[in-house]
Structures are given as C-alpha cells and as structure tokens.
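TODO from last week: model GDYXXLXY domain-containing protein.
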Amino acid sequence: MQKTLIIVAFVVMCLAQWFIPFKTILDQEAILSEGRLFKLQTAPIDPSDPFRGKYITLNFSENQVTVNDYQEWVGHEYMYITLADSAGYGRISRASLYEQEGDDYIKVRISYVDSGTPATVMFEYPFERFYLEESKASEAERLYWESRSDSTQQVYAMIRVRNGQAALENVMVNDRPIADIVREMNNKPE
C-alpha cells in the first residue's frame, strides 16, 4: 500500500512539473494569438549592456506617468497602465495601483517615484529583452542602436495585450522585423 502511494505521488509530481511550464507557454501563446496589438516607441539604450549577444535590450519612450499625489504611490511595487491607440502607437491613457476594467491594461513594476513638480512615477515594462538566434543577436543589437540614434528611422516594439498580461511579438525598424533586416544584411555579398 505504501509503495503504491509513493508511486502515485511520484507520478503526480512528474505531471505537475510538466504542467506548469506547459501552462505558461499556452498562456503566452494565447496572448500572442488573441491579444490586442499595440506598437510602443522605443528610446535609445545604453550600449554598454554586458549581456549582449543573445538579446536586444529595449527601452521605451513612455516609461513614466505624471501623478497628483506622489505619496499615494510610495511603497507599492506594481501598478497598472491602460493603453489606448494613438496615431498607430500605444499611449498610456491611465495609470492606477489597482487592476483596470477591460483588456488593454498591463501590470508594470514601479521603479521610482519622483516627488518633484510635477510628481512622476517611473516604471518598467514586463518585457525589456527581445531574444534572437544567437548568431543574429549582436548584429541586430548594432542595427537597433544605429536606428535609434537616427531620427529618420522608425523603431518600435509590437506587443500584444490580453487580460492584463502582455507579450512582446517583434521589434520593427521602418515597419520591417529586425530579424529579417539582419538576415538580409548577412546574405549580402561583401
């Protein structure tokens, strides 16, 4: 009897170890397939990232909100921002310490509360890295930096938002996926 119980417990534990990653993957896929699409403008980044080579580090233009009473925000780790489509780009339409109505909100981490005038709350999106095939990542990162410093280039991240969760779909340079541009650059004869 005890041996059977141990075997059953072991099987349940093995199934649970497979279920949790499988559920996480399914949740991300649901966001990517059913979530509402927003484009977020990126901002220049610090090129001294020590982890270069496997991903592009993203920095977003809209990473702070103005608030009336900064003390209300002090001591909180997370906040919720609601996105609205503005001229083809996602813009923050509302910020709150509590979950919002509807699907177009994201839970973000508060990084700093500034008591200046006006009071602002700075935050970090849950996606700050865009992973690429290792052989393409350094070239893509170089292209990303060059594009961000050239004001004629349009660089943005495409995200999907669903039920307060967000997933990074792609990084675009002039309406083309960055991986495609790098692939073309690598295929050009010297």
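Done. DSSP finds three helices and eleven strands in the chain.
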